[in-house]
Amino acid sequence: MSETIPDTATLIPLDNVDPALVEALLDRAFEPERHTRTAYKVREGTEWLPGLSFAALDSDEMLVGSIQCWPVALTDAEGRAHPLIMVGPVAVLPELQGQGFGKALVSASLAGIDARAPLPQVLIGDPEYYERWGFASEATGGWSLPGPFEQHRLLVRSENPAVLPREGMLGPWLR
Questions:
Q1: pLDDT tens, 61-70?
Q2: What average pLDDT does the structure give for the chain?
Q3: Do 145 and 38 meet the contact criterion of CB atoms below 8 Å apart?
Q4: Which of 16, 57, 130, 132 is 20 to 30 A removed from 100 (C-alpha atoms)?
Q5: What pTM was estimated for this model as a whole?
């Protein structure tokens, strides 16, 4: 899926951006209390994946959006870890939301996943927004997270949903 952003915008690898600028963007998009959210507990202790994480810059080369992806795992009842990629946070400056930056960032990130052996992708988000990329909650009904969450917002995208455990705890993938 190809999404367009304003002609004056550019997507670049997130590791080319000062981490302090990314943190400031995330604070504006989600408030500083974002660190207490369950998604942060799921990816705690891991580093974001540079090859799947991007920044959106405007015509003045100001950071206006970002996406990060993280290595996580669903640990099943037998203690086996099933690796997944956690997509998000997807952040866009509040005054620029609705202009296509988020769609372009998600599309760029998902396009970077190796099609020869794609890991399933998981996120916590609005089903109506993320279904355009194939994310759904049908396979996540028996999954748990290390904190509060709304079950219908726990979404997964997988080439072969049959390989996903029906039950398990989502958390960091610490290899």
A1: 999 999 999 9
A2: 92
A3: yes
A4: 16
A5: 0.92
Q: Could you tell me how many helices (H) and strands (E) the chain has, helices first? A: 4, 8
Q: How far apart are CA 49 and CA 127, in angstroms?
A: 24
Q: Considering only CA atoms, which of 23, 14, 24 is closest in space to residue 51?
A: 14
Q: Is 114 exposed, middle or buried (CB count within 10 Å of its CB: 0-12, 13-18, 19+)? A: exposed
Q: Count the residues in the chain.
A: 175
Tokens found for residue 100: 């296509």
Q: CB-based contacts of 68: which residues, under 8 Å, 6+ apart? A: 14, 48, 49, 53, 88, 89
* Domain assignments of the chain as residue spans, ordered by start: 10-172
For residue 50, CA distances in Å to 6, 94, 145, 147 come to: 24, 24, 24, 26
CATH 3.40.50.2000 fits 10-172, yes or no: no
- To the nearest 10°, the Cα dihedral for 106, 108, 113, 118? 40
